[in-house]
Amino acid sequence: MLQTLWECETEPLSIANTDMQSLENVLAFIEEAVYKHSGEPLTDLQKLILRAAWEGNQKTYSQIAAEYNYSDKYLQQVVGPKLWQLISNALGQKVTKSNLKVILTQQLNAQEDSSKSPATREVSSAKTAIELEYPTDSVPLGSPFYVIRTPHEPNCYANALKPGDIRIKAPRQMGNNSLMKRILAQAKENEIQTVTLNFQQAEKSTLNNLNSLLRWVCANISRQLNMSPKLDDYWDEDIGSKMSCTLYMEGYLLEATETPLVLALEEVSELFDYPSVAQEFLTMLRTWHEYTKAEPSWGKLRLVMVQYTENYVALPINQSPFNVGLEINLAPFTPQQVQDLIEVHGLHLSTEQLNDLMQLLGGHPYLVRLLLYHWAQQPDSLEQLLETAHTDAGIYRDHLHRYLWTLQQYPKLSAAFEQVLNSTTPVAIDQVQAFKLNSMGLVSLGGNCVSLTCNLYRQYFGDQILCS
After folding, report:
1. Could you give the count of Cα atoms lying within 13 Å of 102 in the half-sphere of its Cβ?
2. Model pTM score
3. Any bridge partners for residue 305, and if so which?
């Protein structure tokens, strides 16, 4: 599918050739690809942005706006985001102002490979296999293996440009971190500062003490903004650490920043082992959220949070940060998204085989990508990979072992999961256990009932739990 987008009337472009003729060919190609996909022609203003991006991607939107006499806010918040989304949809990859040439290089190389002799294509295929990306916690920016999560990404990018919260909620390995990285990259494209706090990087002695935790938060934000930490100037034990942290955020960090700030929070669930600390920290985040709607200085702040689990910390509904802002629930890949990813790997499945694969893996992003990674390395290995998928000799053994270990540590959770395994239709189980199994990605919620997310789990855990 991706390759057919390059079937335009212009001659193949030389990657090193960036003269005016090549630029015009590139613009013509992009315009044709966008029109074929959306039926929408590019506007003159969109073409101006493309020209500036191709000629020198170090140009900011403000510089482009000044050069062509447009409002920089209009370019940043309206024209730019829509343009990159149109191109991304047409090319099947996330495209931004900064990675435009990289993506075009990859696509043009694919077109050139298709015109080579069989012997040359064999060498190219070997090179492609070497350059495959092993699936990890997140897909690198500009990767051809990233699947655009529509309609979520446009909503996230638009919301990152205004005050408020974005919560990415899904089980692990569903693409949470990949989406967060792209939200932060898009924010930087629009000249917004970004800071990331990963609570796995904090020591236990920090996590179990509220004062230590909040000082750790403030110090980290300061250093990532290249500002000297001045915690002692704002910390006051008489007003408490929460108020001290809030005043530091408002009076020092936000006051000193001229542009908006996206604060990304990862692995917040690490705090759930310390309920009293988590409760205080989360209520403070909720207060910050309320401030962004009323206080001018707080209007610069945008919070982005990855939420893997339900909130097991008892909080009144009006004090929780988990029920405000834009909530993004990442769903499994659709059959079309899986098909597109198969083609990016240079592979092919019939419609019947694709349906069988969807039944086995449920469109789970990590499970799909891991299979395609191994299959692409050995194109004749698919049958063997599928036959051993649910066994301890298969490619999913580490993934399945982690789930099995967790179930073995929590008898109530294991008993609830056994109920699901014993039923071929959605079944009602204890609500808390249902939320936990859903946060692990083992079951899908549907009303008051749950069902297994894929046949792989039924095959493996049916042997391990029901037969034990």
Report:
1. 14
2. 0.71
3. 167, 265
